[in-house]
Amino acid sequence: MSTPEPAAARRGTSPRRALIVGSAALFTDMLVHGLAVPVLPLLPAVVERGPAATGLLFSSYAFAMICATLFAGRIVDRHGPRTPLLIGLLGLALATLLFATGGPYWLLLTARLAQGVAGGMSWVAALSLIAATTRFEKRGQAMGIALSTLTLGVLLGPPLAGFMVEHFGTASPFLLASGVALADGALRILLVRGTARVSDDTAGPFAVLRVPGSAAIVCAIVIGAGVLSAVEPVLPVHLRAGALTIGLLFGLASFVAIIANPVVGRYVSTAPRLLLGSGVVAASASLLLLGWAGALWQTSIGMALLGTSSALLLAPATTLISEQGARSAPPTLGGSFALYNLAYAGGLALGPVLAGLGVQQAGFPAALTAGAVFLLLLGGASLTRLPAPRH
C-alpha cells in the first residue's frame, strides 16, 4: 500500500511544482556563486586587501549560509517553506545588486553575507518543500534531481561570467543574475501554495552524525567541497589571467566532475573506500600540480584533476550519508541531506580562509603543497573509520 499524499500536495503544491521550484532555487543560488568566482578576486577593491581578505570574502558566504540554515529550519517548522523561500529571494536580489557596484571591500563582504543568508534559506526551504510534497519512497530520487542542479549552476557560472566580463564589463554577470533571480522569484510566488511541514521524517542531522562512521563521511564531503573552494580566491590572482580564462578553467573542473559522476556512481556500492581514497589522492595531486604549474596547459590538467577528485569524493559520500540516515534512530532521509548540506557548507567556509592565509604567509606554491600534505593525512585517517556499505 502506498503512503498517502502529503498535505502540501493536497493543498495546491504538487510534487512536480515543488521539484521545479526547489531545483530552480538551488540552481539560481549556485549560478550566482559561480558567477562571482572569476570576477571578485580580480576587482581592485579585493586585490588591494590581499589573499587573506580575499579568502575571507569567499568564506563569508558559507559562514552566513550555515548560520541561516539553523534559523531557516525553525522558520520552516513554524510557517512552512514558502516564507524562507521568499526571504532567500530578497537576500539574493540584494546580493546581486551590491556585487554590481564593484566595491568597496566592506560592501562586497556585505553582499557575500547576504548571498550566504539567501543560500541557507533557499537550500533548507527548497529541500523541505520537496520533502513535504513527495511520498517518502520517491523522496530520495526527487532530492537527487534537485541537488544535481547545484553542479549545473557551478558549471555554467564561471565561464559565463568570464565571457560577460570580457565583453560587457564587471557588473554584467550580476545584472544577469538579477534577471535570473527575478524569474526564480516568480516561480516561488506562483507555484508554491501549500505550506505544510514534514511530519514523517523528523530526525535532524545530528541524529545521523551520531551513527558510527558518519564523521568520516562528513570529512570526505568537507574535503570535496573545500579543495575547489580553496582555489577560487587565490588562483585568479596567481595566474594574472583574464576573467574569461579563469572562468573556463573553473568551468573545466565542473564539467569533468559532471562527466565523472555517473561513472563513479556505478561503483559506489562495491568499492566506496577505494573511490574515496582515490579522491583524496587526486585532490592532493591537483593541489601540487596547480601550485607548481609553469604553463596554462599544466594548470588545466590540475583543474581537470580537481574536478575528478570532486566526483570521487562527493558521489560516494552522497550515497553513504543516506545509508547512515537509514541506520539512525529514528531512520531519516531529511536528516541525511541536512548533514550533507552542512558538511558541504563547512568545506566552502574553511577552504578559502585557509588558502588565503596560507598564500599570504608562505606564497602560492608552498601553501598549496602544505594543503596537499594535510589532505593526505586527514583523508587517510578518515578512511580507516568509514562504515561498511549496506548490501
Topology overview:
Blueprint: H1 7-10, H2 15-36, H3 44-47, H4 51-79, H5 82-99, H6 105-133, H7 136-168, H8 172-191, H9 205-209, H10 214-231, H11 235-239, H12 243-265, H13 272-292, H14 296-327, H15 334-362, H16 364-383
Helix pairs in contact: 2-5, 2-6, 2-7, 2-8, 4-6, 4-15, 5-6, 5-8, 6-15, 7-12, 10-13, 10-14, 10-15, 10-16, 12-14, 13-14, 13-16, 14-15, 15-16
Domain Major facilitator superfamily (MFS) profile: 18-390
Transmembrane segments: 18-40, 52-73, 85-107, 113-132, 144-165, 171-191, 211-231, 243-263, 275-295, 301-321, 333-357, 363-383
Protein name: Major facilitator superfamily (MFS) profile domain-containing protein
Q: What does it look like?
A:
With 391 residues, the protein is an all-alpha fold. The protein has 2 domains: 10-200, Growth Hormone, Chain: A (Up-down Bundle), CATH 1.20.1250; 201-391, Growth Hormone, Chain: A (Up-down Bundle), CATH 1.20.1250.20. It is built from 16 helices and no strands. It has helices at residues 7-10, 15-36, 44-47, 51-79, 82-99, 105-133, 136-168, 172-191, 205-209, 214-231, 235-239, 243-265, 272-292, 296-327, 334-362, 364-383. It starts with 6 loop residues before the first helix and ends in an 8-residue tail after the last helix.
